[in-house]
From TrEMBL:
InterPro entries: Tetraspanin/Peripherin, Tetraspanin_animals, Tetraspanin_EC2_sf. GO terms for cellular component: membrane. This is Tetraspanin. Belongs to the tetraspanin (TM4SF) family.
Amino acid sequence: MEGMGKRSWVRATKCQLLVTSLFIMLLGVSVGVLAIITHSGKHFIVINSASSETNSYYRNFHTIVSYIGMCLSIILAMAALMSIVATIKELEGAMAACFFCFTMVFCASGIATYWTVTNSTVVENAMIDVYDVVYEDVRNNISSTRRQELYSIHKMFLCCGKKSPFGERNSIEDEMCTSEILEIKEEDCLQEIKHFLKKHMDIVSILMTITIFFMIYGMVLTSFLWYSIHCKNNLDRKGKYVLAKLSETGF
């Protein structure tokens, strides 16, 4: 009865790990899609193309974050596939590798979540700095290219110019923020950029929190199954050893 109860626990854990692995696979796809959106999304592309060589911090940061997200997505997908194979075939080494992958993703997700909560203003300031540089270049008539970049930002974020705390309008607002040129409401671009980035960072935080939960659950399941498979393999080896000894003695 004790053995049957233990086997039922193992079967239940296997089923849970298989279902969890499928969810982790979907999670990996979601993280990959979010990374692609961060890398190639129209809003980010507009800001990225407007960041000049003198303001390359955002461009470098944007590239690093995108590739980290893609790497995390690949690790999640590989860990989920490995977990499914290890569960079905009861592979001790593969189960240990799954536990290691889950632990690594857990640490990375925890760091990402903490950074997102505590340093979201860093990304916000970087994007706003890009807009400020383009805005000032256009106001100082640096080049026609800058004017086109400013127009693209206004069109993408559905905004126009910056609202002065004193209610004054600069020449840029008088020139570009008219219904004939830009058929949108005259929203403050700084506020629209902040609003867009807040929604994006909220999605990142939610996704990383879900990832942390599944990694903890996956670590618990894989550690239990690894122990069960390890004990089973030891018993099998001992049984073979006893049979070999008996055959050598002629019994």
